[in-house]
């Protein structure tokens, strides 16, 4: 990362927030004797909503949820993917249990349940869910997903999704374990060693041994560590057995934070096996690293029987916690065998990746010698023999060109990759000549790098070329087809004019805005097929900083994101289909595929919205990107649509034309206090169309508009906001003539929840940062413009001069890698008798490291707020009204007991993670 730019937004940005909520208490035990009290647990909210179908994915038209609650009544609402309420109802609670049974059409939906006791709300919960058309896919479908090594219970969700390929790392060190398999030893500038000890153990036959002969000094240390994926806002219990000889005080410490803070001391001196236990509650982070750290003299220390569990669970999340795997000789496939068997049983083809280095060879660097390549080939041979008959294709390495998965002389070098590809290709083909060897596997299409690989002879040692055509966030995928055609042309150039298949084995977007990601998925998939790609794999299956098709929200709890439903629909529509035609007309995109069920056109617009007409002599079903279908009947030989960046499917070969006869527009932003939104309906017969008498139906309200032949009529109507939620919404409007719907129109509107009676404000809530200092995009000037951070007096200072649009976090090296404090001073005429509230409107947050803020009133106790992941683009893009940035807001109660007449102060500390971007903030009555 350039030190003068905000943290960039790529799957490759390995950045987590400085972790919030470290527990102050920890437990040290010696021989099982407790020396400190264990941490307490936080009670739940008395409401649990669980889908009757695992993963909240339902086949058919009904969705059922089982509810447990201490309340006496439940009210629920269902919203569609566009944010509109489509169903609502009540459920009776009996003996603490209730059922929410919803009949809804196909598509992506969100259920919200509100629990009340004696008429007062006590809790609420939400769950996304998807309703899909049942479908049995052929075994040779070209669609897959990157799955890593998921829990086996996710296989039904993979099958229901419709993928028939699963890309999975068959990592070398997992199959041929190094001495400290699963662990990372690291010595920096210290005279120290970290190694496997086969003679000393707490249990079993081995432990990790650390020796450090260097007295304490800056940046001199030795560590042994293991990173693991975690869930936000979850308490984890860390425990380890440690033994030591001649350990200086504080020379041996445990930590899990990425900044190595909140350290827990191990014993000092010489001591026998001692158990150290501590707890840690995560903030928004998705990765923790368990680390034993030595920064001073340690004669010798041994680590064994390490455990990391979710509090209340016995499941150890660590790999090789007892260091026994280092005793294994030869190859071991136990980690992968159950998954490969499960894939085969479910008709899913594995695409294993042979990847990375092994500490046993070439000094742990990427293979760069004949001996290292021979060892890599031997591991490849063993893997192909073990999974013979289950594996039909295999990739050689992963993103070798990028440099982030390679080290040493070979790092990123195409000549070294060509040599590794050759030896691996020969090894795989010697086992089974029918196995397809996939090479290249580049980050981006990397034409120059591929050319260098081919110049070094690589073309002869691959059957398929794969790539990962990622684009920046929040850029759209609209150039992917041309990029893939360039790859295919390069292949033909080096293969005597003959083609070889090209696959996209990774593509995804780390976007908090799931609807935008869903649209990009369909567009990226369609454009890949249009570019001649033979197989397409989405990255990723679960979580992974908003890349996932599924949310991981708790133990054994997964729910779909909009991208899951969008991918399922695309698979059902396009499996077995071939591209028949395509055209680009201004912002309009049209791709026609021909398949078993006839022709289907995939349509979208690169503009925010474009009104179009489709000629037809029959009724057409328009299917939106998550599967909801609308039947349109032609009026005067045409049906009418609004196309957006979210593609739709229509079974027609007709070309859409712009400037449709019917349209609807809305103001870009309204406030909940407005209670209505004014929509403007248009009937345009100025092109000579016959008279029309139609009804526009928006949010349940009908508005009739009549226009004579040749006349253009606009009519405004106020529509209630009651069925829209705060945030970004899309209003879907039906246009009907008589008993038939003839049009489906869409318009976006932002609903902002802005309270009345502001007592102090900074900026105006409007989904822009234009009225704030340094906006939009001059983040690099922050350290010089605000060297002491921000202090702002409401009613006195000018936001354009005194309140920075961006507040950096500790992860931001360009702003000093520290906590930054923003201070808001405001005056009250009298001491309030009731609480006030601080409402903070954010334009965007970092997508992978949103982190936390601490809010305090008048130097009192701070309230920690965990921020949602945003788009990561808001540092440079000053408006959410016409871009993919992801606004959010949070509210903090300001107790009347701590407010006073006269001067008051609120401080906002960015305590972890990367930057946030402000829209506005204010003090309001509660």
Automatic annotation (TrEMBL):
Q: Where is the signal peptide?
A: 1-36
Source organism (scientific name): Actinophytocola oryzae
Has the keyword Lyase been applied to this entry? yes
Domain Rhamnogalacturonan lyase, by residue range, is 761-921
Q: Does the keyword Lyase apply?
A: yes
Superkingdom of origin: Bacteria
Q: Which InterPro entries match?
A: Galactose-bd-like_sf (IPR008979), GH (IPR017853), Glycosyl_Hydrolase_39 (IPR051923), RG-lyase_III (IPR029411), TAT_signal (IPR006311)
Q: What keywords would UniProt list here?
A: Lyase, Signal
The record's section on Pfam families has: CBM-like (PF14683)
The molecule here is called: Polysaccharide lyase family 4-like protein
């Amino acid at each position: 990362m350039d030190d003068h730019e905000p943290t960039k937004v790529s799957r490759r940005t390995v950045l987590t927030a400085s972790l919030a909520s470290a527990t102050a208490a920890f437990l040290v035990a010696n021989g099982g004797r407790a020396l400190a009290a264990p941490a307490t647990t936080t009670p739940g909210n008395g409401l649990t909503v669980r889908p009757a179908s695992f993963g909240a994915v339902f086949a058919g038209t009904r969705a059922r949820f089982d509810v447990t609650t201490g309340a006496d009544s439940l009210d629920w609402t269902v919203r569609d993917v566009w944010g509109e309420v489509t169903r609502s109802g009540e459920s009776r609670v009996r003996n603490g249990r209730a059922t929410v049974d919803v009949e809804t059409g196909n598509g992506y939906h969100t259920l919200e349940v509100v629990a009340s006791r004696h008429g007062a709300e006590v809790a609420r919960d939400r769950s996304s869910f998807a309703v899909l058309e049942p479908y049995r896919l052929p075994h040779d479908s070209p669609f897959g997903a990157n799955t890593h090594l998921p829990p086996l219970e996710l296989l039904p969700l993979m099958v229901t999704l419709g993928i028939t390929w699963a890309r999975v790392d068959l990592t070398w060190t997992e199959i041929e374990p190094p001495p400290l398999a699963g662990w990372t030893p690291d010595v920096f500038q210290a005279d120290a060693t970290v190694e496997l000890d086969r003679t000393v153990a707490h249990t079993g036959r081995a432990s990790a041994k650390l020796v450090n002969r260097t007295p304490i000094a800056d940046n001199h240390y030795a560590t042994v560590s293991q990173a693991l994926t975690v869930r936000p806002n979850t308490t984890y219990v860390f425990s380890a057995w440690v033994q030591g000889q001649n350990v200086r005080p504080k020379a041996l410490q445990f930590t899990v934070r990425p900044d190595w803070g909140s350290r827990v001391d191990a014993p000092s001196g010489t001591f026998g096996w001692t158990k150290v236990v501590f707890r840690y509650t995560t903030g928004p982070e998705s990765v923790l690293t368990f680390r034993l750290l030595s920064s001073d003299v340690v004669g010798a220390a041994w680590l064994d029987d390490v455990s990391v569990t979710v509090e209340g669970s016995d499941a150890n999340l660590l790999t090789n916690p007892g260091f026994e795997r280092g005793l294994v000789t030869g190859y071991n496939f136990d980690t992968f065998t159950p998954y490969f068997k499960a894939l085969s049983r479910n008709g899913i083809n594995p695409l294993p990746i042979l990847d990375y280095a092994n500490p046993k060879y070439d000094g742990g660097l990427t293979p760069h010698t004949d001996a290292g390549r021979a060892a890599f080939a031997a591991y490849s041979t063993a893997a192909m023999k073990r999974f013979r008959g289950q594996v039909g294709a295999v990739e050689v390495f992963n993103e070798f060109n990028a440099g982030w998965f390679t080290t040493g002389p070979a790092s990123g070098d195409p000549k070294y990759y060509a040599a590794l590809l050759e030896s691996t290709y020969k090894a795989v083909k010697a086992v089974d000549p029918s196995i397809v060897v996939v090479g290249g596997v580049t980050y981006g299409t990397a034409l120059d790098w591929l050319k260098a690989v081919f110049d070094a002879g690589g073309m002869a040692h691959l059957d398929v070329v794969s790539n990962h055509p990622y684009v920046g966030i929040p850029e759209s995928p609209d150039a992917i087809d041309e990029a893939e055609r360039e790859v295919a042309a390069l292949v033909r150039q080096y293969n005597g004019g003959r083609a070889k298949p090209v696959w996209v084995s990774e593509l995804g977007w780390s976007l908090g805005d799931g609807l935008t990601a869903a649209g990009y998925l369909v567009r990226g998939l369609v454009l890949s097929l249009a570019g001649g790609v033979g197989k397409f794999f989405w990255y990723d299956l679960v979580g992974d900083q908003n890349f996932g098709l599924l949310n991981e929200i708790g133990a054994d709890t997964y729910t779909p994101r909009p991208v899951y439903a969008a991918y399922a629909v695309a698979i059902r529509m396009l499996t077995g289909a071939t591209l028949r035609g395509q055209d680009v007309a201004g912002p309009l995109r049209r791709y026609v595929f021909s398949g078993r069920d006839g022709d289907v056109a995939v349509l979208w617009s690169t503009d925010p919205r474009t009104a179009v007409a489709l000629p037809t002599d029959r009724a057409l079903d328009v299917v939106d990107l998550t599967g909801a279908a609308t039947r349109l009947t032609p009026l005067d030989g045409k049906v009418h649509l609004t196309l957006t960046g979210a593609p739709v499917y229509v079974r027609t070969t007709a070309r859409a034309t712009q400037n449709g006869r019917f349209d609807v527009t809305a103001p870009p932003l309204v406030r909940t206090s407005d209670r209505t939104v004014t929509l403007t309906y248009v009937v345009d017969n100025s092109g000579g169309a016959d008279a029309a008498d139609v009804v526009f139906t928006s949010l349940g309200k009908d508005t009739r508009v009549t226009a004579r032949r040749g006349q253009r009529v606009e009519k405004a109507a106020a529509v209630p906001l009651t069925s829209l939620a705060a945030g970004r919404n899309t209003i879907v409007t039906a246009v009907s003539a008589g008993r038939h719907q003839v049009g489906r129109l869409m318009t976006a509107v932002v609903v902002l929840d802005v309270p009345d009676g502001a007592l102090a404000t900074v900026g105006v809530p409007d989904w822009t940062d234009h009225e704030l200092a340094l906006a939009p995009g001059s983040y690099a000037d922050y350290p010089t413009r605000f060297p002491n951070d921000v202090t702002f007096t409401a009613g006195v200072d000018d936001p354009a001069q005194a309140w920075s649009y961006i507040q950096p976090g500790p992860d931001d090296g360009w702003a000093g890698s520290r906590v930054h404090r923003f201070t808001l001073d405001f005056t009250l005429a009298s001491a309030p008798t009731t609480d006030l509230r601080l409402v903070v409107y954010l334009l965007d947050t970092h997508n992978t490291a949103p982190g936390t803020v601490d809010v305090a009133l008048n130097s009192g106790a701070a309230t920690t707020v965990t921020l949602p992941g945003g788009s990561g683009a808001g540092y440079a893009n000053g408006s959410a009204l016409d871009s993919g940035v992801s606004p959010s807001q949070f509210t903090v109660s300001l107790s009347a007991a701590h407010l006073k007449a006269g001067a008051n102060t609120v401080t906002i500390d960015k305590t972890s993670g990367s930057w946030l971007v402000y829209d506005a903030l204010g003090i309001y009555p509660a």
